[in-house]
């Protein structure tokens, strides 16, 4: 029996998930295009290969979120360095250019890659 929420590959585009507690959910390859994730708890969420284009991640807690190949290059609202350094981005996470070039984000990516996925 699976105890974690599993929505692998789910179509959640434009979903209103503000302040949702999605801790540990499996959302690999999910379509979260334009989703409202403001202030959502995304701790340890598996977002590998998820489409987060135009999603609003303002104030979302990304601590430990798995972001390998997640599409985040165009998001709505304020995505911060602090959010990303608490998460698990990799070299193949699609980030906004200004965040991908930030030294703190680059250092976090290096650390994640060294410890493995």
Question: What can you tell me about this protein's structure?
Answer:
By secondary structure, the chain is mainly α. It contains three helices and no strands. It has helices at 81-86, 97-100, 103-115. The longest helix has 13 residues, at 103-115.
Helix content: 10-25%
Q: Return the average pLDDT rounded to an integer.
A: 93
Which residue ranges are poorly predicted, with pLDDT under 50 across at least 5 consecutive positions? none
SSE string, helix = H, strand = E? HHH
Number of helices: 3
- Distance from first to last alpha carbon: 24 Å
> How many DSSP E strands?
0
Strand content: under 5%
Largest sheet: none
Assembly status: single chain
Class based on secondary structure composition and strand pairing = mainly alpha
Q: Judging from the principal axes of the Cα atoms, what is the shape? A: globular
How large, in whole angstroms, is the Cα Rg? 13 Å
Secondary-structure map with pairings?
Elements: H1 81-86, H2 97-100, H3 103-115
Write out key terms for the chains shown.
117 residues, mainly alpha, 3 helices, globular
Provide a concise account of the structure shown.
The chain has 117 residues and is an all-alpha fold. The protein has helices at 81-86, 97-100, 103-115.
